[in-house]
Amino acid sequence: MPNSIKDTIKLADGNQMPMEGFGTYKLTDQDTMDAAIKTAFESGYRLFDTAQFYNNEELLGNSIKKLKINRKEIFLTTKIPEPKQGYQSTLDAIDESLEKLQTDYIDLLLVHWPIHSQFFDTWRAFEKAKAEGKVKSIGVSNYHQTHLDLLSTTADEMPVVNQIEDHPYLTQEPMIEANKQRNILTQAWSPMGRGATLNDATIKDIAENHGKSTAQIILRWHLQRGIAIIPKSSNPERIKQNADIYDFNLSDEEMKQISALDKQQRTGDDPEIVYEIEHQYPTH
Ligand SMILES: NC(=O)c1ccc[n+]([C@@H]2O[C@H](COP(=O)([O-])OP(=O)(O)OC[C@H]3O[C@@H](n4cnc5c(N)ncnc54)[C@H](OP(=O)(O)O)[C@@H]3O)[C@@H](O)[C@H]2O)c1
């Protein structure tokens, strides 16, 4: 259990990763990004999560440069989107990310969503980029157990992280256990259900008992389950608040009450559908 936001955990490949990081989805203008990254860095966040799909890698790279942050002090995650998957196109996409982020390595590269046609070739490119040192750790996002099993039939190295949607309304116990069995750390995206879980009556009661916000209770619940988190906010007070979760403990009973709120409610697509149709948001 981390004692501070700067604490790291050892991944299966031996690299260290902070358990809490900062999500950047929907931060799409430079001023907002600059302000958010400055507050986040000052509040102790050291992991920054972006993706080619968010269209903001360059903005994040610019913010880091402006703040004169030492590259070794931070951990950068980015993701390869569905249209860029495949062997050569993934290798080319990695070079694009390096250029936009203005760095010579990515700490953690994730396959954003599994897709059936490029499934094995994309992973071969990930293994090559890691061997070349362009990427320190390789992982996946939105992989079900069947996708991990399929990958294991040809992979030389298995992913060390699986970033999945996870929050009190989608608690993901079987998937978390499946990751654990394979030495894969679960990292929660939309850890607060993109806001959907913040007004829950049970969580509000627990928050009042601790003198904390519902967001802080939810983020603490993730950490006490051993799940890494990447909350996003563009609001300075909320960015600080989400980092201030290391001075209290939820009881076993409170942990159980929150886990019992599961209702299989997704904010994003079901990975199985994306795997079949090969892109996100089929209904949009
Ligand atoms: N791998 C994937 O497929 C995938 C998919 C989605 C997201 N992600 C990653 O996960 C990160 C987090 O997920 P997310 O942005 O979807 O959802 P989230 O972090 O669960 O929730 C963000 C929302 O909650 C609000 N919020 C944040 N802190 C709050 C607080 N303390 N009190 C009240 N409201 C608060 C934010 O609004 P304000 O900004 O106004 O504070 C925003 O609307 C993303 O930024 C992205 O990096 C990955």
Automatic annotation (TrEMBL):
Record keyword NADP present: yes
Q: What InterPro entries does the annotation carry?
A: AKR, Aldo/ket_reductase_CS, NAD(P)_OxRdtase_dom_sf, NADP_OxRdtase_dom
**Keywords, ordered alphabetically:** NADP, Oxidoreductase
Extract the SUPFAM superfamilies matched here: NAD(P)-linked oxidoreductase
Which residue ranges does the record assign to the NADP-dependent oxidoreductase domain? 21-262
Note whether Lipoprotein occurs among the keywords: no
Which PROSITE patterns does the UniProt record give? Answer: ALDOKETO_REDUCTASE_1, ALDOKETO_REDUCTASE_2, ALDOKETO_REDUCTASE_3
Record family assignment: Belongs to the aldo/keto reductase family.
Its protein name is Aldo/keto reductase
Native source organism of the sequence: Apilactobacillus micheneri
